[in-house]
Amino acid sequence: MGKPIVYGADYSVYVRIVRLVLAEKGVDYELVPVDVFAAVGIPAWYFEHHSFGRIPAFEHDGFRLFETSAIARYVDEAFDGPVLQPKDPHARATMNQIIGMLDAYAYRSMVWDVAVERLEKETPDEALIAGGLSQASKTLEALSSLKAPGPWLLGDQLTLADLHAAPIIGYFVKVADGQKLLAEFPEIQGWWARIAARPGFARTQKAD
């Protein structure tokens, strides 16, 4: 099989999720830069890869995909390496629940309403940040209740749920607000320390 291609930017949480899955599987890949925030706009050619002009998109031996969760599952199933999805149907359903919850409730609040607002705005919207922290607290509480005993979210097996959560929480803890809130959830804080120490996490860090 040929080398897969990931289209996107190294600043993107969702591009990083795909790159983390590839790293954990030990799969070499090419990252083709696509900056959806570029002043000149999204390149016209990119809409052939993603109908909605979002990132990431993915290609492997002529097979094209977009949507992060679909890409992550394909990579896990198409390539050799450690299995990243539980066989047990209950654990697999919980993995999918965590991923869906993070997409629906964590990404916007943790990344945009808190971290980006604090890092990128000269005068941050404190009301927006407060609302984001409230939503983030609910998400972390739910994540704590769903976490199984063991080092990872589903227990002893590292899964796609861990790799989906890591870049979102990684962005959240770039700011003191996020660090302080995470400290209120020691199980998740311990998980965060373990996932952040994995070699793939360092390799997919955005270069300054």
UniProtKB/TrEMBL annotation:
Keywords attached to this entry: Transferase
CDD domains: GST_C_family, GST_N_Phi
UniProt KW Methyltransferase keyword: no
Domain of life of the organism encoding this protein: Bacteria
Protein name from the UniProt record: Glutathione S-transferase
One cellular component (GO) term of this entry: cytoplasm
Domain GST N-terminal: 2-83
Gene Ontology terms, MF aspect: transferase activity
PANTHER family: GLUTATHIONE S-TRANSFERASE OMEGA, PTHR43968
Signal peptide positions (record): none
InterPro entries registered for this protein in UniProt: Glutathione-S-Trfase_C-like, Glutathione-S-Trfase_C_sf, Glutathione_S-Trfase, Glutathione_S-Trfase_N, GST_C, GST_Omega/HSP26, Thioredoxin-like_sf
Keyword DNA-binding included in the entry's annotation: no
Source organism per UniProt: Mesorhizobium qingshengii
Domain GST C-terminal, chain residue ranges per copy: 88-208
